[in-house]
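Below is how a single chain appears once it has passed through the pipeline. First comes the sequence as given, then the structure the pipeline wrote out for it. We keep one example in the README because the format questions we get most often are answered faster by looking than by reading.
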Amino acid sequence: MNLFAYAAPQRFYGLAGKLIPWFAVSAAVLCLLGLWLGFVEAPTDFQQGEVYRIIFIHVPAAWMAMFIYLVMAFYAILNLGFRTRMSAMMISALAPTGALWAAIALWTGSLWGKPTWGTYWAWDARMTSTLILLFLYFGYMALTHAIEDQNRADRAGSILVLVGSINVPIIYFSVNLWNTLHQGSSVNPVSGSKMATVMLLAMLVMMLAAWCYSVAVVLHRARSIILMREAHTQWVQQLSK
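Resulting structure:
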């Protein structure tokens, strides 16, 4: 079947229902494995001691916060360009999870910053741009809920998401563009990894766990949004019988 067929809410609803258990179970298994690798198997860092282990939560959270916003921007383009109903619904489904990851990234970063920098918060370039990302998530949700007409709300939200997407590369390259307290990337596609193998494996497993969790939660939320927005359709009314 053509994948574009799943742009129809009814087809997407059924597909999402089948995928959610697989991603949810995968997230749980990968999270347990990643935490065991990161907090039990990984050695103590010779510079930061035990506090460095927070990266196994902080880094996946930060990456997912940026990645989800880019996915929202992709759906915003589809919504503005093709007016597909599922695109707008997916943006709405993605925003709360992206905001959660951004909040976790800021929280864990602050916990790491206290013993490392001596303060929970510094107006560091990466920290500040990540805070802006959290505000963009909140701004999208507030804007779309403030406009009663659903079509207008979806268009306004999509425009805000696209404008705000410029902040994602700013977050990523901030440590290179400005003199910042935040340490550089430990994993680089060009220079490779500066981490011990078990540390890198733990981080990658936790990233995959965060991704699977996000997919499961977003699909579940998308199904709820579909039921609300398509409540007038015959197929949704038949589900309640």
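DSSP finds eight helices and two strands in the chain.

See the next section for the split statistics.
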